Amino acid sequence: MRNRLFCSIMAQKNPYNFNLSFLPNPCDALYQDDVEISKLPHIQELVELAQDMEDQISGDFNLDFVLFKIFDNSLAFVKTGLLCFKIKYFKLFKSVCGTCKQFRQEKLGYSTWYANRMIQAARVVMTLVAAGFEVLPRNEVQCRSLRSCCESEDDLVPAWRSVVENIESHKITAKSIRGYLKPEEECDSFLAKLGNTHIN
Question: What is the structure's pLDDT at 96?
């Protein structure tokens, strides 16, 4: 509670301090006077998680568990792809919508384009997981970048092995993957093909 009170006071003083020399608390927005939080279960769960963490002090955090959750959460896009595939494969949408496209748009807020790319990304990651990799693509764009550099799925594993052996983990991005595997092609033109995205 003490942490929340302090954050509330700081949020009132400077609610959105985006000075690059100072990282603001992501939860500051929760301490404003005009907060209106959705009742949707997944949003409520997020807010409860944030509030629980705000009430904890340094000694309450187990670093091993924190690291596990960070790595686990980084694979959320893969889990989304796996679930999107099952919705389509088992036609789970039929009980509420006439078509899979309609279900994606009305229930998930996804376009067919987005859902299919999540499924493709999940396939890429699971292929790499089955090959024993511990360093994996961090998002759909990196998966798409890797796929675009391969002639077939058989090339995914050797291509990714080359990437992780030659690019430091924290420097792996969609652009660096493409730049390493296809250095003869302009990265700018490649990124243009990816569409408007700000994900590395």
Answer: 95
